[in-house]
Amino acid sequence: MTIGAVGAVLALTGSGSPLRGPFALFFLFSAPASAIAAALRGLDPYGRVLASVAGAVVVDMLVAQGMLAVHRWTVDGGIVAVAVISGLTALSVFVRHMRRRRTADKGV
Question: Which residue spans traverse the membrane (predicted)?
């Protein structure tokens, strides 16, 4: 995940590094895939990997399609949009986990 974060930072700062493209591409696939994988804890490992990779492709394509449809496509905007969607997905998983933990602590 560190490589993805470095890629996002390199892309957002406009760095001329040759690693900017591959690392940013890694971020665009790893961020939504890891968030979706966290949400799919009940699946077996192979199904979870397959569903999270497919979900990452879908998130990336929907972001690109939506930005192109409204004529607002930018590389920075795409990276930010994917980061926000992935962050919200991960946040919802965290909130759901905390709620379950709180009810388990109460003994309900």
Answer: 26-43, 50-71, 77-95
Range of the domain at 70: 28-106
Q: Does residue 22 form part of some domain?
A: no
Rounded distance, CA 88 to CA 39, Å? 11
Note the pLDDT of residue 108.
Answer: 57
Q: How far apart are CA 87 and CA 35, in angstroms?
A: 7
Please give the structure tokens belonging to residue 1.
């995940």
pTM: 0.87
Q: Is 14 exposed, middle or buried (0-12, 13-18, 19+ CB in 10 A)?
A: exposed
In which residue are the tokens 């979870």 written? 48
Q: How many domains does the chain have?
A: 1
Residue 74 lies in a domain: yes
SS3 72: coil
Helix 75-106 / helix 20-39 crossing angle, nearest 10 deg: 30
**What does residue 42 show for φ and ψ, rounded to 5 degrees?**
-80, -15
Place of tokens 């607002």: 72
